[in-house]
Hints:
This protein is of the alpha/beta class and 291 residues long. The protein has a single domain (2-287), classed as Luciferase-like domain (TIM Barrel). Helix content is 38%, strand content 17%. It has helices at 17-30, 70-78, 98-111, 126-131, 139-155, 192-201, 212-228, 249-257, 273-287; strands spanning 2-6, 34-37, 85-88, 91-92, 116-121, 161-164, 169-173, 185-188, 204-206, 237-243, 262-266. The strands form two sheets. The chain has an eight-stranded parallel β-barrel, surrounded by five helices. Strands 6-7 form a two-stranded antiparallel sheet. α1 packs parallel to α9.
Amino acid sequence: MKIAVFAPLAAGVTADPQWMTVFARHVEACGFESLVLAEHTVMVTRYTSVYPYDPSGRVDVAPDCPVPDPLDTLAFLAARTERLGLATGVLVLPNHHPVVLAKRAATVHTLSQGRLRLCVGVGWLEEEVSACGAEFADRGRRADEQLQVMRALWQGPDTGVSHHGEFFSFDHAVCRPAPRGQLPVHIGGHSRAAAVRAGRYGDGFQPLGVGGERLAELLAVMRDAATRAGRDPSALEVSLGHQVTAIDPARADKLAALGADRVVLAMPAVTDVDQACDLLSQCAARLGLGS
């Protein structure tokens, strides 16, 4: 079982270089697999969108909370760690042009010696997606094409690749550096469309906040979509969520029984880095990491 840790976004500390350096190095020293950073290109002071991961429908991140770009932050942390996996969770695809994103992701992956994992989604905050210039209603079809564009650029020959789709068009494009080995792309989301997208295009699926029969249904949809696309469904990783302060071996075993290959642990909104590191140490000890 791989155990990852979310950086505590709501605490407002993820743009503090000293805090994040200490935190990331401790995540690595404790034996966790990877550090995960969320994305919001912008927050908004008023929104009608419904946050799907809380019964209130409201996100627990204040509009003025510093939310640094995840890829830039992961590049910064790559230089301050040695083996720690570096992941987005999730990067909001409609906020990005796939040609530019392909270059940025491949650069971080190459310079970190293959440590980047992208987890991408279509976003829930319509006001954010609109501010970045994309149509919220089209973001699913757009995401499918974006994933195809990035794969084509990463895997394309030195003679270049061409693409002419609904949203993007180019000819004879070469994007180098190519990813060092495989750059895994996981799909985050809780919908049937996200499960299908993971099966068709992803290397994994991250349906955080989903459990029970609904989770089993989504995993079946993902595997069926993979089979229909001529892909091996058993090769796709599943990442499920839990809390740093509550996870223990029994709960980890239950998540594994549900199909989890990785557990992504949420941190409480702790602003004191020593307290945050103590919580990580306690969690690692409970799970027997690094032993």
